[in-house]
Structure formats: C-alpha cells, structure tokens
Amino acid sequence: MKRPMTEDALSERAAIDGRAAFVMAAFAAAAGLIVMIDRVGAPERMIAAAGPVTLLVGLSLIGVLVRSMRISFFYAAGRSTPPTYAGLAAAGLAVALASPFTPPVADHFSGIGVFAGFGGGLACAMLISGPYLRKTGAFSISDLIAARFRNLPLRLGAAAIVGVTALLAALAGYETAVTGISTIVGVERPVAAAIIGVVLILATAPGGELGAVWIAAAAGGVFMAAFGLPLALLAARGQPLALPVIGDGSAWATAVTQIATWQGAASQPASPALSLGMALGMASCAPLLAPLTAVRDRAVAVRAGIGAVIWGTVAAALIAATVAASTLALLDTMVGRRPERLPDVIYSANSTRLVAMCGVAASTPADARAACQHAPGFKGELRPDDIQTRGMFLLTALAPLTSLGAAVSGLVWAAIVALSLSLAASGALSAAIALGNDAVHHVRDQSALTSRRLAITRAILIGAIVMGASVTAARELDPRLLIGLALAFSAASLAPLMALALWPRARGIDAIVALVVGLGAAETTLLAGQITAEKLAVGAVTGFAAAILSGFLSSFLGGGDRQTGRNFTRALWRSDGDALDVDKGA
Hints:
Layout: H1 7-39, H2 44-65, H3 71-76, H4 83-98, H5 111-136, H6 141-149, H7 152-185, H8 189-204, H9 209-236, H10 249-263, H11 272-283, H12 286-289, H13 298-334, H14 344-351, E1 355-357, H15 365-373, E2 387-389, H16 391-396, H17 398-401, H18 406-444, H19 450-474, H20 479-500, H21 508-526, H22 533-554, H23 563-573
Antiparallel strand pairs: 1-2
C-alpha cells in the first residue's frame, strides 16, 4: 500500500525540485553564454575547455550545498530522492560503466555480447536487485548480507569485497575523467588528477550519498542534452539519423559494417557466458544500486528502476546514433584524401592514439604521408582500410568532424567527464560506506556518536579519493579491465550471497562456504592465461554457479538456527514487514 507523504516529506520534495530547477537553469545559462562567446570569435581551445570546467565547478557546488551530519542523509540521501532523479542517476552510472566498451576497441570481445549483458544487467539491477535492497532498508549490499546472516567473518568479507569492487569501478571513472580533462583542457595528468580529486572531495565528503546521487542525476541530464544536441543540429541540416527503423537504415548499415571491420575478430557474436557474466555483475554492482537505496520505499524504487531502464534505452540510442554518425563523418573526412591534407582534428586524434593511418599514429602531415607511402597498394589517397579508430574518438568527435563548433564539442566532453566523475564519486562512497559503516562501525562500536561515525567514513572516503589521484597521476589505466574485474568479482561473490539471503534455510556458515567456493572458482578461471573480457565473464558465471550450488547444498547439512532466515524472508515478502532493524539515525 502506498504511504502518503508527510508535510516534512512534501517540504523536502519542494526543496529538491527547487535545487534541480536551479541547476538546470544555471547549466542552460552557462551553455548559452559559452555559445555566445564562441560566436564572437574566442579561441577554440578556451571555448572547448569552458564546458568541462564550468561543469566541474557546478558539481563541486552541489556537493557543498547538500552537506549534512545526519546518518540517513549521508548514507542514503535521506530516503527522499524522487524516482525521476534516482532513475536518471542510475542510468547515468550505467552509461559510465558501459561507455568505455564502445566499439571499436583493441580488445578481442564482442560489442554485441557486452552491450546485451549491460542491457540485461541494468534491467536486473533496476527491477530486481535495487527494489529488493531498498525493501530491506539496508544502506549497501554488505549491510544487507551482514544483517541477514549475522556472522562476523562474513560481514568483514562482504564489506571488503564491496569495498574492492567499488574502488575498481571508482578508479575506472577516475581514469576516464582524468583523460578527458587532460585532453580537452590541455593539462598534464598529475594536474588533471589533482583537479578531479579536489572536485570529488567537495562533491561527496560534505553530503555523502546526497551529493553523489545529485551529481549522477546532473551527469545523466548533461549527457542527454550534450549527445542529443549535435544529432538535433545535424537533423536540422537535413541529415537523417543513422539508426535502424527510426532513421536512415542504409547509413546505419554502412556504419555498422565499417565498425565491424575496425573491430576485426572481436566483432563476432559472443557466447552466452559473456552476456550472462556482464548481467550478473551489473545486477550486484554496489555503485549502480546506490541511487535506489535513496528513495522512499520499495514501490518508489520500482518506479525509479523503470525510469532508469527507459533513460538507459534513450542513452543507448543516442550513443548508437552518435557513433554511427561519427563513423560516416570520419569516412567523409578522410577517404579519398591525401594523408598530408587532412583537418587538424585528425592529426590531434592521431597524437593521442585515438586514430591511426596506415597502422601508424601519425600526428603530423609529414608522418602521415611517410606512413602511408609504404602501405601495400597505396596510390596516394586514403582508403577505408587505411583508417583505424577507437570508440572514445567516435563518441566525442562528431562535433569537430561536422563543423558544429567548439562549444558543442566542449559540451560533449563535459558530459563524458561528468559521467566518469559520477562513477568515481559513487564508487568511492560505496567503498567508504561498506568499510566505514558495515565493517568498522558495526564491529567496533555501534553506540558511537554520529559525528565520530561519519568522521570515520569521511576519512576512508577522502583516503580512497587521494589514492585514486595518486594512481591515475602516476600511470594510465585501462577502464575496461577495471570495470570487468569489478563486475566479475561482484557476480562471483555478491550476487550469490544476495540470492542466498532469500533462501530461508541458509545460515551464516552456508554463506561463507558459498563465498569461498565462488571466489575460488572465479580466480581459478582467471589465473589460467591472459585476462580477457570473455575470460572475466566465464569466471563470473563459473563463480556464481559454484557459489549458489555449494551454498544451497550446505544449507541441508547439520542443524543450527533457521528462524533468522525465516523471519527475514517473511518480512521481506510482506508489504508492511521490516526485514532489517532500524539503524541509529536512519
């Protein structure tokens, strides 16, 4: 039964709507001002950098404005986030997880298989795992597992796994944000890492989940606007969208064929294990589920999940149309031209290894001419087979390739940076909550003052952000590997424990058996040879299946108290049941 909103809840909703309206109006005004400056002839580099810099300042202000010393606000955004914004935040985090896998990529995996897994995983996370987690009242996955099984080693193990997997996802977001800032603003990696670190601390440390959710929602909204605007401008020129059914099917087919050629052997259809492994990892990904813990109740979580799936579908269509349009524009720009007579945007992309000509990342016209002179069958003009590129270039190059202006290009880069930063914020905060609340607080001193409890979590959060800045400043990371590892270990350990929590016979010892067996099976698979996306998925599926089977069989051995499990599942399925004890301050 739907509970009526109290007067305080209505006041909080009005405040939330006011903040959202202010942020949207401020962003629209800033974007309009940047476009005006672009029209009067300001340097392109400055115009392109203005969008990301303005957005970083805005995201920092959001975090500072929503500061709070209340447990429920810091850990769960006060359980007052409207479903529209929670769904948009979750969709933004899902796009941040999926965008590094945009084909073509150098890794040998199927783009179709990966994105089928991401789509299925988003649906499972938003329609099953998220509402389930919200119904229990838990702050995180490890909080749910620990409260269900009441076992200290399991609590510490689950908190550690959530912390590690969330930090891996955070590092992936950190790396993409640092790369984006260093590319578009033109600063060195250490400087970009420091900038992102300061923004993350300002955005998350004062308000916790309240800040992280609003940052993710803002990033999702910026993404929709930034990727929709170039396509709308091209449509206004009379160029149809390169999409099947709703657009130009022949242009879509041309783009898909070219991308498959660039992808090479990796464009082959994937095995079901790849999609299933990705889906299981997404369904138990702590940063992705966080926005659904911030809504009022399970019914609102379902509505937010449906919204996230809808927003995610729109985002997938925007990405597909952008990549296809960029592919066609790249072919129009390069094919049939001499390698030394190309626009500057191509040589700039070559210098960052996003584009290559004749197998060489030639950053000057002379280098390009020298590289292609030795290509087999080359007759002076570039052919489609002489061009190679990567998905990140196709995501961000549509505006410069079609002469839409530096302001539009900066807006696109702002969206990429915002999405990446939201993933870094949600991942670091999920790790801090798991370690600071689910481990330290519940094990050491459950009667601790709220100020000390939040101080511990904030210290862990700041430490995680500083670590991310140090690592990304020192070396370039692979976001795909980091996300793949995070999803694989989530699927092999957290997903089976969440499933076993619904089994009334399961005890703490059964959950420990499942955890050990699942991780052991996954690691055995991963240690054999080079780690690839396919191997990560197989390890995830193997670990999940082994954990579920071992935990289920173990639950039929021996005696022990089964009443805790019965009480938990009974409360979970009742509309008025409370599966977990109410936490202090929550």
